[in-house]
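Board work, copied verbatim: Ldh family oxidoreductase
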Amino acid sequence: MEQTLTVDALRDRVEGIFRHAGMNAIQAAALSRVITAGERDGCKSHGVYRIEGVLRTLKAGKVLGTAEPELDGGSDSAIVRVNARGGFSNPAFELGLPVLAARAKRLGLAALVVNDCTHFAALWPEVEAVTDHGLATMVMCPSYATVAPAGGKRPLLGTNPFAFGWPRTGRAPYVFDFATSVAARGEIELHRRAGKPLPKGWAIDAEGQPTTDPEAALAGAMLPFGGHKGSAIGTMIELLAGVMIGDLTSPEVLDFLGSTTLAPFHGELILALSPEKFTAGREGDPFARAELLFEAIQGQGARLPSQRRFAARAKAEAEGITLSDSEIAQLERFESLGLNAVA
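↓ predict structure ↓
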């Protein structure tokens, strides 16, 4: 029977699962926040579904659940560095965020580089955390090689998500967050679990032929969105959030893990920009001008990105988060068995 939990109650249960699995408070708390946020916002592919992958990666020894991220605070440059020290990206980001925001407000722009981290979550939680400081932001990271470049037949690029946010006074920010593949890998896995075929154009099989079979797609490669355009953006992310920050590219991640069943190990790049600093000396309030643009978009009947997610959030905060029978059973299994619940 399905069950409805408050946002806080679900977060406490998820954090308890991770603590039971041997993770420290720093790692468990940050991960429980981002997983619960995914479920709260109706993003099922980044909600409690992700717990199993976290536990599997922890059990395989590919992530350190007791890591304490380390901030490089010795420089006053525009580049802020946090070494996740083999742990998850989320607590490393939380550690570096206040320094990133302060430097971006002072210098006009700043970058947070997170190295040596495992990443499994959506990027919009980081985006919203930066926009909460009144800053615009771009966030990106590689993944593991599961996407064929445009015209190619074998996995080479990652799903390589890219996200952007613009702060809005008194309302939710303008946010988009998307994989540079046609769909996130988690969406293909959800289709597989549900026994549903994929839409055409999502993937190719191991021979490079188009397929709608999720199993064949997982054994083959996903496709970039927009053909050569998505392929180019995915390559840009490999360069900026892999090569440029001295961390792993998607092919290197796959070599390191040896499997796509584990959460990927790489780096992350977060750019923060101050609209006030960039418009200094020019006429007009950048935030007021942005609102005119948003109003014009909506005035044509178009929807701003993330509006569905924000509506789901409001509903969940008022009415709670409803989980299915199988999701509740899985939570109980993780609570009981810990790491023994995964292969």
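Residues 89-107 form the longest helix (19 residues).
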